[in-house]
Amino acid sequence: MRAEISLFAACLLWAGHAAAQQSLDSDYRLAGTQTVMAFEEQRQVLQTSSAVMLNGRKEIGYGIVISHDGYVLTKASEVISAADLSVTVDRTNYPGARILVVDQTWDVALVKIEASGLVPIVYAETSGVPQGTWVVSNGASSRLVRRLLAGIVSAKSREIPASGGVGLGIVLKGEGETLEIAEVGDKSGAKEAGLQKGDLIVAADGKKVKNSADLADALKDRKAGNRITITYRRKEEEATVEVLLAARAEMFHDDGNRNDQMSGDFSQRRSGFPRVMQHDILGNKSIMGGPLLDLNGKCIGMNIARANRAESFAIPVEDLKRIAAALMASSGAKQ
Q1: Which pairs with CB-CB distance under 8 Å and at least 24 residues apart come from 216-219?
Q2: Fewer Cβ close by (within 10 Å): the C or N end of the chain?
Q3: Span 243-258, average pLDDT
Q4: What is the pTM of this model?
Q5: Are both 196 and 57 inside the same structural domain?
């Protein structure tokens, strides 16, 4: 009995100590007003050199201004299906934005708006900063003002393989003498290429495939964003199409696992990237596509995927510069 009383008294003392501890004032928490004020210089860069991507009135992502005359980089998979794409830079909205070209491997689109006198982002020299380094990104924005979120680089740069490997986006009918398509994913490369239920796959990149093992062998060394030619038979006719490959786990959406259900609004595409920086800035998929800034206000990367509640991915600046140059050259833009 005496031991139980002693334990009870100790618990009371601990509870009293915990209650007496001061809670950090909300102004000084990670998204508090005083903390945000400390990053005002970086917020000004977001104001002038990040872009808000809109489908009608709905904000669907962010972008990076890379030229004075209206070239913008953004996350392709979040804007590609927009029916009424416009872009807001600083306080001006530019309707009629055009997607010029897409890099499927990196999920980056080059968008053009009719503008002049914009302030392009300034690239950082390197993304090779220590873990724990502060970084700044777009947060939710009002119509006129870019807000920010702050966090740290939380892991070393690395490849993010396609979740579940890459695939065409089809389900095959049970094993038999033919590769008959039983289902085509709505957001798959197969659907985009025009493959249909009932089609028979007969070749991949010109090589005959007789079973699912042959098809898997044709895909095994491919990455998300690569393309493969598929020859198929429909009724009595054969045709060949080019199919965009994507992560298998991301083409057939269901309610997800419990971790995904608890992770919030993550990106439609969040794997299959050749190299990413990882940071812990909170947010959802709508903050992707914009710049990741260092404390000098320079672009250290481009936010490309909200993976889960603890991980956001950004394309490192070295890769981003190469992607931007290639997309500009592909579009015929003067550099």
Answers
A1: 219/165, 219/166, 219/167, 219/168, 219/245
A2: N
A3: 74
A4: 0.81
A5: no
